Amino acid sequence: MSAAQIDEQRRQEIGERCKAEAWQAGAKASLTALGLAGATVGGANTFWRGFRTSLGVSGKAALVVSPAFAMFWLYSELSLHECSQKLQYEELEKKRKAQL
Prior knowledge:
By secondary structure, this protein is mainly α. It has helices at 3-47, 49-54, 57-99. The protein starts with a helix and ends with a helix.
């Protein structure tokens, strides 16, 4: 294998690891948001008559699911960005050491 093929294989392995980390970070944040939003909507539905009568089932479901989707997207994106920054830093360090 040439050096270029080894570098490409390494980049693919790191990319797969970054995707897995992003999925895990997004899922964790999403489940947390889902639990908190579900508890909040459930509590509001139980104890607040105005909330119970003013929103239908679809509105309440949207209030529970929307934060979960948003948190999944946000934490996945932040995790991918962090992984990308680490990869760029490693490449810069490799180039710097090669120049010395």
